[in-house]
Records
---
Amino acid sequence: MWIPTEHEKYGVVLASFRGTVQHGLPLEIGDTVQILEKCEGWYRGFILKNPNFKGIFPSSYIHLKNAHVKNKGQFETVIPVEDSVITEMTSTLRDWGAMWKQLYVKNEGDLFHRLWHVMNEILDLRRQVLVGHLTHDRMRDVKQHITARLDWGNEQLGLDLVPRREFSMVDPDEISVTELYRLMEHRHRKKETPAAASTHHLFVHVKSLMSANLGEELEVFFHIYDGRENRPLSERFFVKLNKSGLPKSPEKTERQCTLFVDLGSSDLRKDVYIVVHIVRIGRMGAGEKKNLCSVQYRRPFGCAVVSIADLLTADSKDDHLLKVYACNTESEWHQIHENIIKKANSRYNLSGSNTGLAVALQLLHGDIEQLRREYMVLFTRGVSITRKLGFSDVIMPGEMRNDLYITLEKGEFEKGGKSVARNVEITVYVLDIDGQILKTHVAAGSGEPGGDEYHSLVLYHNNSPRWAEQIKLPIPVDMFRGSHVRFEFRHCSTKDKGEKKLFGYSFVPLMQEDGRTLPDGTHELIIHKCEENTSLADYPRYLKLPFSKANLPSNNQTLKGTKESFWITSFLCSTKLTQNGDMLDLLKWRAHPERINDSLSKLKEIDGSEIVKFLQDTLDTLFGILDESSQRYGLKVFDSLVHIINLLQDSKFQHFKPVMDTYIESHFAGALSYRDLIKVLKWYVDRIVDAEHQDHIQQVLKASEYIFKYIIQSRRLFSLATGGQNEEEFRVCIHELFMSIRFFLSQENKSTTPVAQTQAVFLRTFPAVYGELLKIFTVREVAGFVRETLGSLPTAVHADCLEAVKLQCIAKTVESQLYTNPESRCILLPVVLRVLQAHMQEQRDLVMCARILTSMLSLIKKEENGTAEPVVSEEVELIVESLLGVLLRTILEISNRPQPAGPAMRLQFQDVTGEFVACLLALLRQMSDRHYQQLLQAFSSKDNLRDFLLQIFTVFRILIRPEMFSKDWTVMRLVTNNVIITTVLYLSDALRKNFLNDKFDYKVWDSYFYLSVIFINQPCLQLESFSPSKRKKILEKYGDMRVMMGCEIFSMWQNLGEHKLNFIPAMIGPFLEVTLVPQPDLRNVMIPIFHDMMDWEQRRSGNFKQVEAKLIDKLDSLMSEGKGDETYRELFNSIIPLFGPYPSLLKKIERETWRESGISLIATVTRLMERLLDYRDCMKLGEVDGKKIGCTVSLLNFYKTELNKEEMYIRYIHKLYDLHFKAQNYTEASYTLLLYDELLEWSERPLREFLNYPMQSEWQRKEYLHLTIVQNFDRGKCWENGIILCRELADQYESYYDYRNLSKMRMMEASLYDKIMDQQRLEPEFFRVGFYGKKFPFFLRNKEFVCRGHDYERLEAFQQRMLNEFPHAIAMQHVNQPDQTIYQADAQYLQIYAVTPIPESQDVLQRDGVPDNIKSFYKFNHIWRFRYDRPFHKGTKDKENEFKSLWVERTTLTLVQSLPGISRWFEVDKRELVEVSPLENAIEVIENKNLQLRTLITQCQSRQMQNINPLTMCLNGVIDAAVNGGLARYQEAFFVKDYVMNHPEDGEKIGRLRELMFEQAHILEYGLAVHEKFVPQDMRPLHKKLVDQFHLMKSSLGIQEFPAYVRASPVHFTNGSPRTCRNSVPNIISPDGGRGLARRSYPAVNRYSSSSLSSQASNEVSNITGQSESSDEVFNMQPSPSTSSLSSNHSASPNVTSSAPSSARGSPQMAEKHKHSRENACLSPRDRPVSAIFPNPMDPAQRAAPHQIGDATLPRSDPNLSAPDKVRPTPSSWSLDSVKEGAPSFSDSFGKMLCPPVPPRPPYSAGSSAKNMRSQSPVSASRSPQKTTVPPFTPSPTECQSTSLVSNSPVLSGSYSSGISSLSRCSVSEASGTELPVGDHPAYPLPPPSTLPNSVSSSSDEPIRRENKTPPPYSVYERNNPRRPVPLPHSLSIPPQADPPALPPKPHQLRTGSMKLDGTSDPRVPRPRPLPRKVSQL
């Protein structure tokens, strides 16, 4: 039986439990569980991180822990009883764990590893804390370390700042808001600004001296030198180096490392240096030979200098190599460092080019103890301490030091009877009182230990040597008395013996008889001469002699007059000894009572450091004098006491204050002193008002804190001694003293008067007295003193400085111990509030006001049950009454003020704002119902209440601002929100009661709603974005405050009644914003409001257009900000639009009378919403450009077509433009900008500033847009489109006579024409993409698109790009249309394959002579339709011959807009399917192969091919395939009797197939002849094999002799452009090229042939083939998906799917190695040529509909049914067609297109030869049984009446959109009908002359031209003024031709019955097209 647990409430999982039992709860090790019930070894409960899922688990898996239970029962919560730091660590590590893994995923490796180390460190520390074996101090350190690490991690991960007190997290409910703010601020500041260290230390490590001429030991001395004052700042650091220049004692690091300690900030200047002196120890001369002399001398070597400022910038770990300089003359040695600093180059030089001292120098900052902790290695390894000369900036009590520094300055010596000057060496000894030499008390510096003596430098031959050597004498204090220093002078001989001869000595005693030490300064010592062997052991004898010339008696002239002297400088740094006689006199006052007066007077002149040395003795002396003779010396003792107290205020001595405090508490014994002190103090206070000089009085008042301390302590001692006598007298004295103080404070003075300044001095020190008074007086008494004293200040104070001081005094009062007592608070509060109110109203001293208010409110706390004590309640009431209003005003003022400039000021400004806000929140949190009622009742009028409400709502809006608190202050924000919502709930009642119905006030209500909305939308309340643990904590503590506020909004809205109309449509946007918060309850609450709004608007105006407009505008702006969520999307999909699966808006609307318009509105908003959500998702960082562009296009079109929102539309145009521009889609960018351009007119209407456009006229903006678009068209190589805009601009400039710009525009236009002709364009690929499945964004879902690929992008690359853009998509491996399951699948499916564009501008493409550069534009621009083929078998498949049943399914896709356009892809509008029969397929395959063969033969003949291999391969493929049954298979399939009987309607097609087969045989024969001529030797065997196989093929076809029409002409081809003389090859070419007709230049027949064969040859071939082909079509030989009968090399045709058998996929011209590898998918694009040898397959030809002439029933190919692939011509040096770039394309998307203009055609006379000239268009011969939208087929343009041949002259049948004036008719000659001259016979037999054509001028030969039905390249709005006809330039006119070539008959020339024979031209001939005005239209 399950029993609720009593004590087992909380535990940790010890081992993982799978939970496989019934009701089992799966547990993981480390989970924490709350236990609800238990039963026989099992527990029932839940995991704390997922409390909703409850289950059972074994009790043995749980480690129980102690815990507190709150709210026992169903909703109990458990709080573990453990150290709060442990709890925090555990929860924080859990949060970090998840985020840490994410760091790895996001590839933030650095932070990942750092966090990992920190987490491990915290876990280790956690173990230490849990074990509990730490000492109290160690525990504190560990906790500090833990919290520092936690804070670091939280900051790095962007988590919240945790408020802590003493390492424990603080519950914000348990402390006041002001305290919380202070804690947060403290932690924030700590994080931001580490305090600058005031003390600095220099670490020096000597490494080595590098020099070439060493060999002697060295001594190196470092010291810090002040270049400004030319004096050393520190003692010396001394290092000994061996002969190699390395430290002598490398194992003792303290001998080579030192720390120069206690440098002040003022010492880190540029003119403070580290100076190094180097001394060598050896012979006198550095280069002397070694002699017998072993005596060593200390001699100068060199000096180095480095500035300390350089170390501040250098890397701290740098090693420095210091240059060493030597002085030119030794006499300069003492000042060499000064010369180096001054750069006096003449006085020193480098001691050697490679001499340098290697040292490590590092500046360390902070207290020495702190350094010991941070640089433990440094101190443990050993480092000597080098002290400053003198005390540091701050002297610490207890510091022990007794160092005497003596500097050997200089000497003056006589020659001593020698001819040269002496070499003087000084030896220094210290002797004690007994004349014994003090061992180890002479030190050259720190580093090396002290010695017994010191030897100075020896300066060579110098009687006036200057050494400047400093030595340190660390003599103990007790040995100072009686000790002296002796200096012995010796001459160092340089002779052989090198002996040192004593010739004199000096001495100096260290202490005078009166106890004073040797005074600091320079002393001139007497040199006492002596003999060489004199013994100086008899010290008492010489001590009687005078030592210094300064204290010689005046009568001793002999010593005074001597020239010999020795100068030293002494400096004592001692904490125990003094050189000051006055100090000693004072301390020994009892010995000389008569000197007391003098001594007290001189005390002020004594240095402070001397006084603090003897502080306790001095104080004892003063109070001793006071006790003994208070009447006489009372005033002087008081003044001396004041002087000492004020001395301790100095920062240098402030650390001695505790020494004085200790003295007062423990040593002070003046029980009677209080009377004298009070009396003197009162005397001074009484004199203040009348005194002229206030300085001394101010000093007295400054010391009042300690004076009161002495008074109180004295009184307490007296009370203790006497049992409390004279108490009343004492109280009276104090009262009188305070009366004097109040009197002097009440004086009104200007700020400049001395009295005012004295008042300020007193107020500064007054608060410090409270604590002392409390020791004797009660709290109420002291509070009374304070109230009366502060109250006595004049109210109208003129002194600003006094006001500030007064506030500071109040602040200190509030922060004092006195104020914390509730009894004193009620006495002091009114005074404090009065002062505060006055200051805040005038906005003065706000920083101090904030500080006071913060302190006041920190003390007010509610009790546990939420009620306040009566006293507290009264306080709150008082504060609310006097300060709430002014506090609100202050916050408003400072928030609206501009922020100050300086960073320090700005910081202070933010602090003040934050503090006032915290104060306001603290105050509001303390207010109860009663307080609110009193507050609201206190307003005298409605206006006042209204102003208050507006004010508080505005302040709340300010508090909600994100910048109000730092980003990581979530705790503070939640407290703020809790206070706001509580207050708003109280105030909403006042709003309802006072401002409804007739008293309605819109402004207050609007402010209320606006506040509510921004409250709900705050980021810190969006719980969904938080981690589960954080969300749980917030919900437990505060609940979901958004829902509370939402309910409040709803309730207030319901109260409004008819006033709701005031808020429509203004509140629609804000309320909509609320519904976008993903909180179901909140949405549920808000829905009725929308319904209400629509209802009221309908009542008012009969519609809700306003509601709709506002909704749409707001939706757009909110979505772009990232609001809204997936739930919205789901709701939209399920036709419950806008707001959720709750009683939805739609359901409410359906019950209304206006339901239709309502539902329509909802539908529109829903559709917009879908697009906006897609847009928002796509715009997220990291999304690919394709998605962004597609989405923007979808949205842009929606705004235009459905919503008609012009401004939004234009905004999105520019967003789309920016996307295109960034992605370098310049063509698309141009089209996009055209949309805006189209909206503008050429008018002078002024336009406002908009987006990035300035204020300008409409004309100027349109001009700017035109220029930008042209520039982009130029970049996108879409020059034809740019030309149109140039012309339009040029017309405008011309109409304004702006010839300068007109000229520029014409030049720009010309440059675009040049680029068309000169620059290459890449031909883009096109791909059809289907997006299937519900996971795609709305704008793609279940739609198919055609996309224009990027440059050089093939199918594989495109497919990969799409899969990268949609990483979750699955690529479909077939081209069949998917079924419904795919459409409805909850996934993403992509179906991609290449498609072939079907150009619209057929007339341009069919014109002969138009360069390929121009045609390429029309082939790939303005494409609406695309197609692809799929082979399949219909009926039963014949295994013997599969051609019988092989059909092709041809799909044509029509787009909604043409490509290119405003996007790289457009949706498919409709699909059309036709089926091509097997016979038509066979015709098409053979036609294509024939074309390919022709082209290769032509290229070979014209030497365009570098290599004959392609032709070889092609011939081999066709002939070999034929032998293996290629053409024979067609014969078997279609020429058998059965087929002819069953398909009578295919008679003509069968005939056409037979003709093509014969034609192929003829072409092959001719090709073999050409091949034989060019084939290299090693390929001859293959050629022979081909010839043999060809004969087999002919016989298999049954061809013995070619028919006449085939023999008549071999393969002839036309030339390229009529304007280039490239057609100079013979007109009829034989294989050997030697014979032929006369060479003539004819215009080209083919559309863009790169052939150089003659036009006649081409005409003859045209007669053979029935059509003329361009090289592109000639190459288009790859079979349609039907099986090629011509190839044995079967490679996959690009559009053939895998459903076709492998034999059905032929690619005859490709080598095996070039086959596609993607046979499964079979979705290949066209492939570019790989080389001239192996041309790769190309896309299907862009077949244009030819002009129909004559019998339309003749077999012709549908132009849209051409084979899918074409072979690319081999690049040649002159072929324009050989290399094409993909032209950027142009869109029809808006209903009209750009149309590059062409000139009109010139008129033709009836007899002109041009009448018979037609555009020859290659067409495939297949017919489709289905109806198609393709234009009617055109029969061969060479057909004519009867049996006579028509002269088939080439024609340029141009479209009007070529963009360049071109010839529309190319007349060959007036006499084009004349026969060929006799000698011009072709190589092959011609028909008899009777078959030659009649004169071309005869009317019977003239066919009728069909009107060109092909739509122009882009439909346009026509201009009103048609364009002027452009005359044909002379250079382009066609010269007359003398002899047109004769043409052989064609096999089907007799079928001409339907040709028109009249001579009139067709009235439907296209007229010149006027210039378009606009490029694109919406």
---
Amino acid sequence: MYSEWASLSAQITANSCGAQCFSVLNKFPASAGREVVVSVVKQLGTNLGITQNAEPSHLVKDEEVKWCMDVICFGLSLPLQEHETIKDCVNVYCEWLTALHPQPRISVPKPICEDANLYARQIINHFHNLFVPRQGESADTIKRQAVLCHRVLRTLQQTAQISQLMDRQTWDTLLLFLLAINEILLAPPTVKDDVGDQLCERVLSVLFEVWLLACVRSFPSPSMWKTLQESCAMWRHRVALVDQWNRVNLALTARLLEFSYGPAFPQLKNADEDGQLIPIGMSNDCVAQTWYRFLRMIGNPTALCSPHIISKSSHFVQWALTHEKGAETHQHPCLQQLPQIFLNAMKGISSQVDAFLGLSKTSLIGLTGGGARNAISSSTTTSSTIAASTTSGASSSSSTVAIGGSGGGAGIPAGPGIPGSTGTGAGGGSAPVPVPTTPTSTSGPPSASSSINSLPLTSMGAGVELAVARPKCNSILHVFHEWLFEAAHIGGDTWRQNRKKQACEASKRPSSMIMEHRKGSISLSQPNSLNDPQSLPPTLTIDKYESGRAEAIGTLCKIFCAKKTGEEILPVYLARFYMALQQCLKITESRECDETLASILLHSSDLFRLDLDGINVLLPGFIAALEIVLPDKDLKLKTQSMVFNRTELRRSAINILLSIMVLPLHYQTLPIRDLTSETSEKMFTFIQLKSRLMNILMNALQVETDAQNTHMLLGGLLLCVQDAVTFEETELGGGNANLSHNSSGVQHHEANLLSSACSERSASLVSAGTASLGGQTTATMGAGSGSIRDTASAHDYPSLTISDDMSFEFGQELEGVTTYDNAHALFVRATYLVCHRLISSWKTDLNVSLAALELLSGLARLHIRETDTLVKIYEASQNLTIISSDALECKRAVKWICDYICYQCSRPPPAHSKDLHSTIVAAFQCTAAWLMQHPYLLQDKDCLQTVLEVVELGISGTKSQSKGTDIPKFKDEKELKPASMRVRDAAENLLTIILEQVGYFPSECGPESISSLLDELALMKHCNSMVPAAAASSEQAIAKFKYFVTENSTILALLEEPLGNDQDPQPTVTLLIRGPFGRHAWTMQLRHLPRSKSGIKYHAVNPGRPIPMNDVTQRLDCEQKNFPDGVDKVQPCVADYSIPTIEQMREQYGTASIRELESMLENQSIHEKLAWAEADTSADSLSHAQECVPPAVCHEFHAARLFLSHFGFLGFETRNPHNPAEALGNPPQRPLIVLDTKSTAFAADLDRLDKLSARTHDTVYVFYVKSGQTSAQQIIANMAEEQSAGHDPHFASMLQTLGWPVQVSEHSGWTGFAHNSWSLKGTPEEQLKSTANELNYNGSQRVLYWADVSSEIAFVVPTTWNLRYNSDTSDGGSISSTDQISSSNVWARGESESAAVLAKSKSRNLSLELDTNRRDAKEPVPPTRRKGNVTKPTLLAQAPAKIFLVWLESYEDYLNFPLEDVLAYTRTGEELHTLQLPRASDCHVIFVHSLLSGLLRVKLQGPPGRMSFATPLVDGMVLSRRVVGNLVRQTALNISRRRRLDNDNYQPPHVRRRLKVQDIVQKYKMDLSEAELLAHLFQRAI
């Protein structure tokens, strides 16, 4: 850099020697000189105003002043015993130097005031004598010398700062003086506590601070800079040099950033005293010039790794020659500081790189005495990029660092002072100061000797934010590459080879005495020992420089990780970087993680996500590093000076793992070349690395203890299994998925690791045996040292015994054959591992439990190819070997999830919290997912019993049978004490799914509805009595139905008219059942014959007469007797005479009465005879032969009455007041409540009930952001038809995998808009013309939709139409105000008597909290649901989650995504129900960026919170396009589920429907007695 300029070293030497020869008194004996000095200086000292008032000096002539100065010059060189005299000399000179001040002291002689610069230069030179170390002085006198030196330095510094008179010559003299005293104090080897050691920090700081001042007042000449650089090279064995160098560099860098990148760039904050290093008047050009020159001042820092180079000065040679035992120069004890000095230098460079990248981390460094700490304050960065290179300073010639000269590495400028370095010319070069993008790199390793703090990572730990306007990587590398690349190679193979080469060359020259040109001193060079590691002391071996090397490679990783989308990095930089990384990733035999490896892993999180050309050559090296760090529970860290946080290290390693997970299946058989070996022996293919990656993942999950890391690993696990399954379905067409390949020498792990790693031998067996054994798979697993059984709990853990009908020999046959890592084996391993860890270690952590249950739900949804494959699992903790099949694995998973629920419910009351109940609810949802996807599980008696027992536990709080031998306890006898209402609701939901949906979903209506698509209006259209034209209004249709409510939660609508079924009339009733879980339509008939025989008519039109029987039997005539024959012979008794004879009657009553009676009898007889005669003559008389005719068929039935009676709804038995059903606060109710349907509002309320879906619903908004777009209008306009041609083609294919397209006009599920969802759509009046744009899913005509049994999700791609639609309906047009009042009460849960009650009970009504005031601590508090005034309107306390899916062309655009502005395009109409409108800070955003490789990079952004980030997507994950739709959908669903779990006031859909039914009951019920109810049943509907 200054090769054309002469050095001023000789002048410094001359000054040093000359100062002692200046005085005449040197010619006399020392005692005489001393006496002169004492008497003269004492007189001068008394006049200074220190002890008495100052007076004007008596020295008025130049000669007088010069004579006195001659004396003082000699006085300054006196032995330290003359301390007082020396002190007076110092005081006099310090006072006289005020001649340069604006206001000189009164005691300054007049000649000095008149020519201040001339005298000041002499005084400054004379001061040299004071600083010369005196030999053999005591520590006390050395301290006194140091105090005087401090005084002089302070005076000189103050004078330089405030003087306006100093000319250029004086400045040069001052700088040369400072260089000289530094030389004399610092160049010799360090001796503890000598004057050099005591003053080291101070003389350097004064030198640098005055030098910076000179840059403003009188910019030093190139010769001066060259001299400074040469001098610094002599002081590199001093720790303080690098510390002060770092201070100045960082202070200059802070100023450089200010004007290079503007105020928006993150500011580098230094300690206050460091911030004042830069003089106020320094111009921008001057800052740039000074920054670059100071940066290059100490030469190449890697020289610090060579004690031979550092110790080649004459001072070290002199020490070596005088050493009593004889020693080499590089063996001086002070050189043992070199590793620490090297580390500090690297840290300084690293901090500057951080500053240029805008890293908001504590930057450096407790290196200076004051512990100067620097941090970067994060300021919002939106400014555009600013010019890349600063203009040059002083000499006004502008120049930049040239690329492509000689020297350096591969055409890049070498560091200054290196022979052949190219760079700037005379004017001094300006660094091409780079230009800014976004955040990616991770935190730097904290160092023991520095104040670097470990960063708090973002919520998912994918790195810290970089400045948007940061420089390009090339720009930073132009400045620092040579030092960093060299430092990264120190101690590596290439470094050793180079040293050997140098040693060979040196050995060819004879040992010689070399005259060193600088000081005429002799330097002994012994080339043979130059590179002889044996001659180095053990503290200076090359491995001691590991910390500095680690810092250098970490800094390089940070630079390369700062690459922006589309940014080019010079191939030569990439090549050198890959070589350095490969060297640093070499694994030692001890398989320990050293500082270099840890530093690489900590700073390389993003390396595989950035489209770096050729980065995949490093894949085997990184996998080997991950195999050391991740599977090891107690990671051995081999560190010297750096301190690593193991959790952060593992997190960073997991980030790398997540970014390379999908590479094997993406590139498959593509070879990976080895950088160093040219032969193909060591070549891997990508697919060979798959099993190693799987093992790392499984083993890491097995030993991970940090919750956030576990969360990330679980997301990665589902990605792997999903990718493998989809790969086999799509790429292999569902055929045999065995990919034969040799596994690449994976070592066996310890037995307690869940590992499927196989040895070379078994790997060859695998590849040889695949063809014959088809799809059979073997996986060996160990479940860790933790025992599955928890003896502390009486809880029954899953039994691992497997069916006995499988022979042991068959299990042995399976061993070691077929692949370990196909989709099926991964599914089995993942299920087994996660279930085991969930119940053994994760059950107490909310987030990990939720992530594990989300993963299990995801595994349940996978469609693994049907296979009878058996999988072998080794369970280490119980020494079991398990042979499993698919069905068995699924059954075991369900059993373990049920056991998990049991365990959580059985925990003691203090443990029952909202979090605990959230995990139980999530476990119920997970069980439902498994049963829905695997309905055959319910055919298994054990599985069915397990699941139903858990449902019972959830609903009632206890099981009927705690053990199999107990007598079952019936539900009437049990007290209802569920863990909480949320748990009870979840258990009810699971029970309904088991009874109604498993094996039946999706129904004929399709997945878009779990309710019947028939309502009253639709049924009446099929009814005979209804004139089609009249079936226009729902009120008319409702009038035909009778409405009853049973159990206060189910509305029955009964229609007694048959639906067009005249040919075979039966008692028919049509039911519409509206319950908590939807609307169902049933038609019932009362049949006396089964349907199979109903074709046979059971009545004939005319059965015909029976044939008469002609053989009449003979009749015997005989006299009929009323009494036995002998009755007359019986003697009558008195009683016989008690009944009078007719004669006696006649006598008693008279003849007239008797006659009257007789005439009546006679008349009656006549009438009867006439009537018979008349009947005989008529046609209908029995005497005429007439046929039997059957009665007419009855067409009218009271079928409703029959149905209600047959189904037991009309039983009016009294209810038991002690029944537990009443214990929950429900009043005793009749089994049936009649609703009054005459009210006009009834139809509207019924419609609102139908509009409450029985499933959860969510909406995801999809946006496409082209490169550089930042405004909402631009982003929305991308989806216009004319714009869609410019989209990434993979965007359209991703949309298709999110859901299936539906026409809104025909769709009966959630559409993304409240006003038109869940309505029964008939055929549209007019067919809307289909849109030409296939991506038009904005909700106006089409939308993407997906649903399962418990949730539905709409994917809306907003366009400008959405904004118009939202502005039209935002005034509440879609939902009337009465609707809000009447239906919105179903959204919140809580006591609703008053606000006070609500507040009081809020903490109690969801989860069980202990209430010591009211009940014993052991008793759980029975949960209560709202009761009383159910019509009171309450609002949703938390809006549904807003989830955005954003496709980025340029990854950095995620920083500028206009969340606030796009919210206007994402209204659903539900916002009216919320207490607050959705805010940007509450939105969850899933950014997807397409890499050049065809893979996709994910960035998650969301509100901070314990539960905001759901799996399977993890921030920073890299996906294949095969699985992106599936994983995005699962993540969106899981985010929404977590938000619901976390919302205190959330109610499940079926609870909302139940409350709405109760609302309807309150409004429309008729209070009828039993008699009135029965009478009502006999009344006909209109």
